[in-house]
Design brief:
Chain B: This is DUF112 domain-containing protein. Chain B: The chain crosses the membrane at residues 12-39, 59-81, 108-131, 137-161, 168-185, 197-215, 319-338, 358-378, 390-411, 431-450, 471-493. The structure holds 3 protein chains of 3 kinds. Helix content of chain A is 69%, strand content 0%. By secondary structure, chain A is mainly α. Among the domains of chain A are: 2-74; 121-182, no CATH class. In chain A, helix 2 (15-34) runs antiparallel to helix 3 and helix 7 (143-157) runs antiparallel to helix 8. Chain A is flat and about 60 Å long. Chain A starts with a helix and ends in an 11-residue tail after the last helix. Helix content of chain B is 72%, strand content 0%. Chain B has one domain. Chain B is globular and about 70 Å long. Chain B has 20 helices and no strands. Chain B has helices at residues 2-14, 18-34, 40-47, 56-81, 92-101, 105-139, 143-160, 165-178, 205-223, 239-247, 250-264, 271-285, 297-321, 327-338, 345-350, 352-375, 388-405, 410-428, 433-456, 468-497. Helices cover 43% and strands 17% of the residues of chain C. Chain C starts with a helix and ends with a helix. Chain C has 2 domains: 38-125 and 257-326, Bordetella uptake gene, domain 1 (D-Maltodextrin-Binding Protein, domain 2, 3-Layer(aba) Sandwich), CATH 3.40.190.150; 128-252, 3-Layer(aba) Sandwich (D-Maltodextrin-Binding Protein, domain 2). Classes of the chains: A mainly alpha, B mainly alpha, C alpha/beta. Chains A and B meet through helix 2, helix 3, helix 4, helix 5 and helix 6 of A and helix 5, helix 8, helix 9, helix 12 and helix 17 of B.
Chain lengths: 193, 498, 327
Amino acid sequence: MINPIYNSMKNYVTSEVLMLLGMLSVSSYMLVESFSFSSESGIFPQFAAAVTVFGCTVLLLRGFLPKPLQQAIVESDGIFNQYSGGSQEKFNKTNVDYDKNHKPETHNENVIENDDADVDSTKQLLLVGLLTGYGLIGYLIGLVWATPIFIGVFAKIFNFSWFDALMVVSIGIVAALAFNSILPVNMTNGVVF
Amino acid sequence: MTQDSLFSAIEILITGQTIGWLLIGLLVGIIIGTIPGLGPNLGLAVALPLTMRLNGPDAIILLISIYSGAMYGGSIAAILINTPGTAAAAATTLDGYPMARQGRAMEALSISATASAVGGAFSIITLILLTPFLTEIVLMFGSPEYFLIALFGIALITVVVQESMVKGLTAGAFGLLLSTIGLPVAAGQPRYTFDMFILYDGLDFVAVLIGIFAIGEMIKLIGEKGSISNENISLSGSSLSGIRKVISAPITTIKSGYIGMFIGAIPGSGASISNFISYAEAVRSGGGDKEYGSGNHRGVIASEAANNGTVAGSLIPTFSFGIPGSGATAILLGGLMMHGLRPGPELFADNVNITYSIFFALLVGNIVILLLGLFIITRMVYITTIDTNYIIPIVIVVASLGAFGLSGNWLDVYTVIFFGIFGFFMMKHNYSIIAFVLGIVLGPIAEENLVRSLQLSDGSFWIFLNEPIPLVLTLLIAAVVVSPILSVVRSFFNGTGS
Amino acid sequence: MPRRRAVIQSTGAGIGSLLLAGCLGGGNGNDDFPSQQFHAIIPWGQGGGTDIFTREIWQEIADQGDVSVGFENITGAAGVRGISELYSTDPDGYTISPMNSPSVVPLLTQDPGFTIDEFRHVGAYTQTVWVLVTDPNLDLNDFEEVASAYDAGDIEAIAGQSPGEPNHVLAESLRSELGIPWESYVAYDGSGPIIQAVAAGEVPAGIVTETAAADAEDQINVLTALSSEGSPVFPDLPVYTDYGYDAEIDFMGQFLRSFMAPPDTPDERIEILNKSLQEALESDTLQSWADDTGNHLEYLGGEDEVLKVLEENQERIPEIIDLNDIE
């Protein structure tokens, strides 16, 4: 009895749902808070927050809506669809005859492959962790010094050869020093030293 | 007046280091465009903080050259390894790669360079000729009109992109909402700052842009399998015959340039769309020519002339109304504002010489693209084989350093990291990041003009309806937002009826 | 720099200040000042007016002292972030910041835990006068006509920047001190946009800096200087006191640009910096730079004069606008 419920929960709580819940809580808070501002300061946040809250709610609840409505909410509705979506596929087929091993990656910036089988999410998670670490260490000891550490760990995790790792770390150090001298802020100090 | 500003524009362009920045921008752009997975958005986002040290015109010319160079650079990988360096060159693979397989790689590369240059040059000359008319329109716009056109830009994006309208509008509204953090222009009360100094100026939208376009893209890229190509690159064929091919197809070239320009001028529809539409048009007017898709040079011309034409087109809404049409122009707008160049009347009346100098730089840039493409680029093809795993840490480092360098505020670094992750999930679930970014960028402009309009009208919303231009804009926004709702309602009744 | 700070901290505050006093005091202590790099913290953005002035002037002062100077823009919170940074740096005379008199407003509203009179002030180098501009199509020819047009309700709005900015305080003082009854205040983001709006007829009148008005003289009517001492950019321009008003709003109508150092910077070093500033302002390099760029540079007094202006601002502004509205 518990298992099916758990499974349906697990199917429902995707990263998209989490993202929408995050957006919903931020926008709800901002909506409530906006009523404490003067009317001039409050009108625009109220408008933007109301639209966001409404949109997030509709998207979160779309699973409970009737099928046709659901489809209309999520479906592509671009005015250029017939070209970039449709023709793209048609042309890809022509191309496949040429070289079956080379599937042309013709997705554009607006169409992301939803096919998770093609994506290595462990690596993505690792990178997110590394990024957070970089921000934290940078805050503690200064971004210039955190940079070689970040790249070094990255190179270690992603199995760079020693030579490649050294090259990439040096490029990083050069970039860090260059930014430090070009931009008018001090990047060599952190809160610790 | 116009003549004076034209001369002063040329003076800006030829004095000082401007030409140098133009060349650097083009080279950087071409390299970034060539590497699969990196595109103009990333190049512009990372370069933006570094332009702080330059004067306004130099900074914008550097950024536009990166944009324009990346548009051309994308075709190199598309032709040689069948992987477009940028989305804007996706249609180039369709005929460019078959040409390379037939031993005509050099010919395809030079067709791409020539078509890019000619398509880009025609559209930019048209833009220069249009500028006086644009000025007339811009000067008719006041506070109510600017508020409405900012909303219209965001609304339009959500119908132009191939995603769900509800998702697009939600993303856009969330962007608008986040832009309200900090001190507003029209009233002195700080909002959502939790009494923390670092939040008084709100989120720096440049940091948000860097996060989404640099970090977000890197998170996406690292998860993609098999991005390295083992293609044997052979550079055979003749570059001269490539130039001849373009000259012998003037109508395709110029038409494609204008298609690109027209589509670029519509907010939300950048080069990733225009190259396909232009290609489709070439196929259509070719009367079902069977050769398309198997190495027809006109296919390469159509795609490449269009994506460079898009650059000129996309500058129209960006410079005149401050409504960028794409990620790249959103960053460009960030650059304009960072250097105190406000789009609208100031760029078209007082500083029209700066505007002209930027347009001229773009024109010169297109000629340089031709020269680079014909003589140097063929030696840079090995860039296409760089393993993206090496590029990812460098891009992250450069993006974070640049963000911190904006004002030495740690909030900017966390903004970059947070919005990198957030942007990645938005991309993953098909939420329009362009709509979100435009929300963040246009939020302050929209709010300032909304509040000011209401101050002028004593709080009455009639100010958005009682003059012809605001009325038309209001009706357009209503049409854009209501039409999908109507289609939802229709499909609902059809669904239950059947 | 960090190492130096660590030494002072580890020896304890009392001994530290003794040590510092020992270093700086005495007859020959001043001979080697300045001997290190100057560090200018600029609380406003790169390329802005204050940034440009600071870079030009301190480059010259550093050149004269045969030392170098580093510039750092720490922007945010209307200047308060950078000013706070200056507040907590070593008072050794090497770190300085620019200060503009209207910036006492964000210090009052944000209450960062210190006040402007705690700082040491090096001296003032220029002042900028605000002017009233009108839409040329309205046929308003002098300050008196504008005042009666507002009185009669023929015109209602006046344009300035966000609440708390000098032109907002000025607009409020026009109403409360001079009795000019405008109806609605419309906020724009800078003098440029105000001029565009006035020229396009969106608002009848606005308050902008004299330099911005000079750049757009053909589009707008420049009517009156809002300082009784007149405008250096428009020497022939009438001033508001010409129309029978008392000199009530000068403290806001002209804003003073100066430099300051952290609290407790020793007197000798402030004196040296003040002399260097005077010399630099008179130098050919800076004077010809000022001529070329249309800026005006003139030594306008040392610590006493600067403090007098800042304190008057600090006192009068809360009387004119309600700081709670901004907070």
